[in-house]
Batch of 3 targets.
Target 1
Amino acid sequence: MNFFEHQARARRRTWGLVGLFALALLCIVVLVDGVALLFFGGYHNLADVDRTMRLAESGKAPGLYDTYVDPNLGLLFWVSLLTAGGIGLTSQIRILTLRGGGGAVARGLGGTLVTPDTTDPLRRRLRNVVEEMAIAAGVPVPEIYVLDREPGINAFAAGWTPSDAAVAVTQGALETLSRDELQGVVAHEFGHILNGDMRLNIRLMGLLFGILVLALIGRFLLGSGRRSLSRNDRGVVSMGLALVAVGYVGLFFGRLIKASVSRQREYLADASAVQFTRQPDGLAGALKKIGASGVGSVLQADPEEVSHMLFSKGFSSQLFATHPPLVDRIRAIQPRFDPREFTQIAARMQRESQTRLSGEDVAREQQGKAAPGGAGGFRLDAETLIDRIGQPGLGQVMVAGLLAAAIPRTLERAAHSHEWALAVICYLLIDRDPEVRESQLLMVAQALGQETERQLQMLLSETPELEPELRIPLLEIAFPTLRRRPERDLTTLRALVDRLIHADGRVELFEYAIAKLLARQIEDVLDPSHGGLGGRGKLSESTREVLDLLTILAHQGHADSRSAHCALIAGLKRLGVKPEAINTIKEDWLDSEWLNQAWSSRLDAALEKLDGVRLADKQRLLGAMAATVMADGQVAAAELELLRAICAALRMPLPVFEQAAANP
């Protein structure tokens, strides 16, 4: 199952969730109507009484409808409307409170942000692992949190999109797991990020809160009635008890919904983690330590609302479990596992120190986050690229570690700094020409202030030029810090980036890529709930946009019009365009003036339209882009940056590539 199939499956689950929620809502409304009839039902006028008496005189016994429902239709209408509307409104309000993304969920559980300048070796190791995973997968580095009051081994990823995601790990996981085991847990959470599970989880939290709100109202009425023993307050207590009962019916449905959408996703995320790291023993070891640990994975904070998004179950109840049995998950990775090993693992855990990194882990951190040995690259062909989207392998993780380690120390520290992050983005777009550079520095001073200009000049003096393959990783590392800037700063930065790019009167490939990546990430942060992957459009309705996109890729990535024409034809053939249509595209099309002057605006328009096409068509388009770029058997770093920017605009995370696959 590739990235697009995962995303389509997540969308189907969302519709299934809506259906389950509607069913639960219907049952709750019926129960509340029953409570309303019990306390407020009866004959409300003489016409109701007269109707019942006529039925009795005619020899027909009044039924339940005639006795209870018909006289109270007005009451039932308003109670049903208020109940359904109240639950729906409460759900939406809860979802709106989560617009802050994954960080809001993590902070709600008592999470502490792991700052880039942390000196704690355990948290430093966690940050290194998360950054490696993000760069390898081609997504922005998520915010990182530690639930420092939780001794159990657990973790979760939350957010609307990869741009506003957060990964949280318990203190118990940091202190208990080795680096390989921690990497397995983090890879599992990235599986949820890349498989489209996070958006579903956020919506599930909102819907379940709406279902459970009746129980909260009932508890409030119980508390109010207990303060007095008057007869009137006894009715309030009775109503409170009835609403609590209805609320627990809601709890039943809530847990049923969570169980129905959660269990299989854990197996898929486990499989993604094993593919990501190519180290099944790491993930299996983490699961084994959960089974052997006395506290397991149970959270001290109330985990009911987030139980469906945790790495392992957050509370001890077996009823409607949101996770498969632990032994079954381990055996899916290591079929010969014997549960009796838990005893041996527990004894070993007691002997080991849980408060510091092992010597092996320290050595690995000092070597630069990842070792290059054994990395298996992949060729940039259509089929392999489609399979790798959202599912990078060990080779990509290792390359990501090497890229992160190769970033100059000054730039890395600046990217992690709240005060310097804006200067880092500007640094990536500064021109080599002294006259253009001077003009750009003036723009920075006017938009962001003289302090940012001074910081930018210091970065330029320390590192006058950055290797091309390090530009995108540096942007991805800087973005978690950048997203914590005020909305005003992000809006100003976006406008400034456009001015910096056009300062020399032309748009380079890497400049366009940086701007497009940054724009997509800022859009998702400012309005994360609207970051859906696919729409309902068809490629057949966007013929002009598809041709523009493939033409620009062919023109920008090939030295002459002949090779560019061959690349365009290869992309169109991959897309399944009929030969008679392909024959109409002549070689001089690649010499059009707009390809040199207005290609960026044409590409912007094309991407805006193509972002709304359905998932299956995006998969076809990705194959055509890969065929176009690799028509000559090689790909330059600038081409990869442009391809990554296009994929980001279409919400397809492009993994990092082996150095052997690209030519500078």
Note: The two ends are 33 Å apart (CA to CA).
Target 2
Amino acid sequence: MNEFSQRPPTHEFQMKWWGWGSKDRKADLSNYPGIFPYMKKHFGIEAKTQPDIIPKSPTIPPSSLTASALAKISSTILYSTQDDCRLTHALGKSYRDLILLRTQLLDKFPDIVFFPKSEQDIVVIYNWCKEQKLAVVPFGGGTSVVGGIDSLKGPSHIGVASIDLCSMNHILSIDASSMTVRAQGGIFGPHLEKLLGQEGLTLGHFPQSFEFSTLGGWAATRSCGQNSCGYGGIEEMVLSLKIITPQGSIETLPVPREAGGPSLKEILVGSEGLYGIITEVTIKVKKLPQHQHLCMYGFANFTQAALAGKTLVQHEIPITILRISDEDETEAFVAMAKKSAPTLKEKIGEIYLRWMKINPERFCTLLLGFEGDAQEVKAHLKSANAILRKLGGAPLGQSPGKKWARDRFFLPYLRDPFLDLGLLVDTLETSTTWSNLHHLHQEIKDALKKIAHDQKVSCQIYCHLSHYYASGVALYFSILANRQDGREMEQWLEFKAAANEVIFKNNASISHHHGIGVDHKNHLFHSPLHKKIVATIKTQLDPDGMMNPGKIL
């Protein structure tokens, strides 16, 4: 046996079990004094300081594995059955997950966590799991917010094995001539970008989970980063991949395009561990940009701002980042930026907005980013500025854009103190056509507000347009509401079901980049035949149904 004598391997990208991010970093609300008046205004929360609550560690039942079963594990394979390791691999980082922890309702844990160092290790683990009747849950960084790594068993399983790829984290080759890189699926975003940067390259993929997510996880969930206007989603960056299924390995060709029938690569990207584990990915990379420019514009309303964003995209202005926050989200971010007393800069800003015929108490923001050499960026900014000014945009300068860039990976840390203050904090996202944007935006907000009204709780719904296409756009919603203690899960399910029903009814995507997991599987398939095709492929690649059961299907 080769169980870790002390504790399983830890690394700089491992998150704490009770919330988002690393153990030594947290959001201090005293740095955002404007939050407390905002909380009092919208939620009746009188707190002037934040509580600091670390949930009690849940009771973890003993592993179901016997000593004789563990004795059959190859001596070359690292694994752990320790409680702390099983806890960190039991679930992801959604609001539902954190509520399960905080209410001591979490009752599903992997029985064992493996740390393979090679594809051959994975094959050996599969065979052992099949013999022991264990389900297999692939684990990258553990950032799923849709239940994608829940420790679920199929009907024929007696337990669950989690397979953590953190040891398979190397760049295997760089083809400078073709501008491609082959890397293992377990490599984390910051490590990948650091190694690429040393070669003057970048993948350009920066989801909000960037600091704690992996290349294989991005491919498995069809991830999309905040620079998607310039770089595209992960499916556009993946040239080819290799996946180890219970029936053997599959490797697609690293060619720029092929007409070889239905694309196997497209079937495997977004498969969420349903068919196997993605162990290698060949990605298309770009040269590191010489210059970056971020700036922000104000608009009188969401309709005006959305039209400006659509016009930029359809005029093919080469943007890297575009993000439009509606009035409610802008109000929240302005509150976060406020000091204890109004500053001269804030007063001047309000005067400027009024002069531009924009209400400083109720307006929208458009964040804009460009990359390239200095002359290119200057020319693109000039073209964009002409369009935005014509459509009612008021330039707000570079400072707000720079602040967003500094904070963008830190914002998820705010959820934990918000939970401590007694709030429900959740997000959801979808995509639709430009022609359906405003109808869908309003209908989702109305549906969520009705749930809040029925629950007799205060609620704020925020939305920003996060990813853009000539034909449509992705909408990203955040929900803050007074939490109903004692019925936390029922309350969340009511919000989630209402949003999912509206999205499904409007033929919008049930997920644009978070994936399906458990939370969205009942609203994924608009056609029974679509579901049958996905299930048939699973039957061929995973006839025993041991790969990530309970997800997607």
Note: The first helix runs from residue 35 to 43.
Target 3
Amino acid sequence: MNPVFLDSPGTKVLAQGNEAIARGALEGGVAFCAGYPGNPSSEIIETLARAAKEIPVYVEWSTNEKVALEAATAASFAGLRAMASMKQNGVNVVSDFLTNLTLSGTKGGLVLVSCDDPGGISSTNEEDARLFAQLADIPLLEPSTPQEALEMTRWAFELSEQISNVVMIRSVSRLSHTRADVALGTLARLERNARFDPTFPFHTFPVLSKHKQRHEKLEQAKRLFEDSGFNSYEGPLDPELLIITSGCAWNYVAEAVEIMGLKDRVAILKLGTVWPLPEQFLKKHLKGPKEILFAEDVDPFVENQVKALVAQDGEELGVKAFYGKGSGHLPPFGELTPQKLMALFGEIMGVHVPRDEYGSLLAGATRDAIPPREFGFCPGCPHRGSYYAIKTALAWDGRDGFVSGDIGCYTMGIWPTGFNQVKSVHAMGSGLGIASGYGKLDRFGFDQPVITVCGDSTFFHAGIPALINAKFNRSDILLVILDNSATAMTGFQPHPGTGTTAMGEKAEPVDIAKLCRGMGVEVVEADPYEMRRSAMVLRDLLKKSGPRVLILRRKCALVQAKEGGFPYQMRVEEELCLGEECGCGRYCTRIFRCPGLIWDKEAGKAKIDDVICVGCGICAEICPQGAIIKEELRG
């Protein structure tokens, strides 16, 4: 059994931040869990899906985040405790439903978890989803450690039921993916039967009175926050500098203060309940210090609220000097680090900054330990073949065509690994939506062919409405669905086309080709490993007009490896390889760029790296001399 699932109160186990959130949900009595995979949030639902084999809880990967929250809300309306989890981009998808849900209210405890990604480590943006809590008038909790993540999640269900509204928890990448010891509590055993009470409707009408009730619920949460143990003050009673911090930034603040020996001069006020602010708790500690520093990721969310509070109660609190993102002392983008804070402490406090020593320590610990790497597709990845075919077809077409991209592993088509073919990337499904717009610009002189790419999971998530739009408006688009039978970018979670659910149950796969044909759209299927044939199919489709679809179907290389591997043993025939004399400019290793193909400087020849090469065989198509040989493996 996974130690995170132990019903052993007081036991300490090593847990990832996301596992701690999942454990907190189980201790909070959650019955229904839904989400959509996306780093850094994926492990929450994955952990709960594993728990479902031993604990009576239902878990699903939904087709998108909005549907996930809607499904979880149904459980809440029926009296059960429920949770929906996602990354920050998913909260955008949820927002339409969320701002209505908070008017209707809830019954069973309902928790929305957003895992934000400061620095855009695995995202197209570094959006701060906390602003949605303000927009929707719902309470927001922000843990700093895995232990707090567990305890806050557990308490969030109680809070939700006290105020009859959804409660939001915000994690970030560093917390979601860090590991620490957490003390387990008791697994809840809530004996509740799901039943919707038809005498109590959940809707948003009349809007004005419901909006008034929403604010009353928020005020109720605000009163509860005043005595919350998730808020703390540490340091001298009359500090020279008060640091107000929340979330992971608290760890950076504590580390920087300790390194610089400022514990006797600096106080740290940590907020776990960041919306609405516990104003009385804050005012108690704001009266003394004249200088206030804010430390948080990413936007000045707490900073702006506290400034407004000080402006509102200026006569009582006095004039303050503020340092943070608003003053320009901290950058308004990217993750905070102890080094950035130490530099600012030195400036404010007039002390020596051991920044160089600290940086040298970190550099020394990692020097030569991490080899240089570039972004690239895995060996055997079908997307490399897909983009090669697209690049070839666009070159044959000769009309300066380009690719409107989308979110997934194939986003790496913006880099050399995808031959720099992708020219725009935004939200999930936007590649197809944007292409739908290009496809109606012929009346304005637009004559460039546009290929839009979309993965199978992304197609189910957000591509279908855009394709319907293109069909309805007769837009001239060519959609290439890169079907690798997995939500590969985030960890191979199942989706409606894979044939299994999050809990491992068998399901009838949704056939993408039949779905598209059902819309009346022309559909062609091909294998991206057959690059030349795929390029020829693309060339022919580029000559046509209206909405049409090419499905390039081949399982993700990592999935293929698990299911039995690849059929070929690859080698380079040295006598045929002309090296620098070929005239191809070392095309195989410099342009095609599969990590299984390497350049042997001593021999002046291309070479197969037998450790990395998986044996997919597609590189045999690219050598003009036919020097790359694929030999079938015998069973």
Note: The chain has a mean pLDDT of 92.
